[in-house]
User: Which sequence fits this backbone?
């Protein structure tokens, strides 16, 4: 049984009214995003000839970039005119029937007006499916710039629908679903020759595994912020050497004990010295140090002139030995 709900406007809350053309619903509601709807309603209510962009953005709760996109959208639809807002000219192009395959690593980026995209949606079922799946993946309606991007990824980069959705899923999981982030990732794949679904899937798995490893290393090193680009290079090299979190933690502890600070270059030297000896586990390290304890202790004893054995001195000596062997 359908649930009936009684809703009634509190007329005392509304002192002013303005008319909304039915065309807003009939012709534009499907294409306009939230920012565009907010802007057009504001302009219908506001009777001034000029508006303050920053004030309007603050009042509507949108970013200035979203304001600019909304202005472009309504200008392209022929609904508004603007003499004060600077917008990027839009080049419209009627899409060809066949999707050209990419012929070089040069990025091709074409622009489409909202009207052109609307016409494409009406005639291209595969594009409708792409937009629908993309919206489900990122959990919101696509903006005009995102619609443009998806068309370019399909028609001029040469990615198929499944590959594009795979890229969107990865960007979503990384918390980066802006058109700029998506295009950056797609361009990286394209320039590296990674264009098929299975190649993209393998690369995403590699990136996901590395990101997980980097996060574990960050926790092991007690880093409170995301590693810098240089630090990420070190972490990547440690993984390529074959070291796990346990040995990286051990190297960190020895670094701090010797220098009283966290030093990526110092940790790297320790790990490099272990890699040269094919030492990749704590058990292997303990065995190696046990084999060297007696002769090293004898050298320190002769040098110091007494029979005591200082573990700190032992660590300093063994570390200096490993550096001198480089």
Assistant:
């Amino acid at each position: 049984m359908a649930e009936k709900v009684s809703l009634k406007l509190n007329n005392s809350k509304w002192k002013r009214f303005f008319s909304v053309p039915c065309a807003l619903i009939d012709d534009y509601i499907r294409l306009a995003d939230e920012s565009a709807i907010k802007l057009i309603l504001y302009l219908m209510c506001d009777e001034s000839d000029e508006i303050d962009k920053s004030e309007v953005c603050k009042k509507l709760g949108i970013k200035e970039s979203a304001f600019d996109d909304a202005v472009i959208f309504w200008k392209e639809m022929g609904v508004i005119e603007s003499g004060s807002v600077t917008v990027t000219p839009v080049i419209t192009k009627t899409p060809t029937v066949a999707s050209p395959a990419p012929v070089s690593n040069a990025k091709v980026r074409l622009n489409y007006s909202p009207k052109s995209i609307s016409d494409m949606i009406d005639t291209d079922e595969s594009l409708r499916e792409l937009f629908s799946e993309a919206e489900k993946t990122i959990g919101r309606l696509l903006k005009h710039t995102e619609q443009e991007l998806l068309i370019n990824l399909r028609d001029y980069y040469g990615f198929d629908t499944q590959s594009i959705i795979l890229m969107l899923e990865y960007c979503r999981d990384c918390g980066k679903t802006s058109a700029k982030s998506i295009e950056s990732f797609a361009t990286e794949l394209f320039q590296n020759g990674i264009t098929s679904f299975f190649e993209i899937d393998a690369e995403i798995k590699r990136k996901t595994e590395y990101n997980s490893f980097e996060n574990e290393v960050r926790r092991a090193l007690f880093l409170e912020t995301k590693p810098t680009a240089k630090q990420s290079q070190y972490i990547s090299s440690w993984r390529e050497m074959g070291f796990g979190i346990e040995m990286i933690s051990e190297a960190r502890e020895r670094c701090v004990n010797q220098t009283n600070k966290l030093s990526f270059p110092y940790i790297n030297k320790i790990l490099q010295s272990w890699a040269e000896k094919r030492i990749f586990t704590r058990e292997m390290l303990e065995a190696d140090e046990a084999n060297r304890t007696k002769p090293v202790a004898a050298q320190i004893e002769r040098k110091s002139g007494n029979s005591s054995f200082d573990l700190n001195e032992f660590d300093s000596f063994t570390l200096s030995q490993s550096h001198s062997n480089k």
Remarks:
- The first helix runs from residue 23 to 28.
- Confidence is low (pLDDT under 50) at residues 84-107.
- The chain has 15 helices and no strands.
- The radius of gyration is 31 Å.
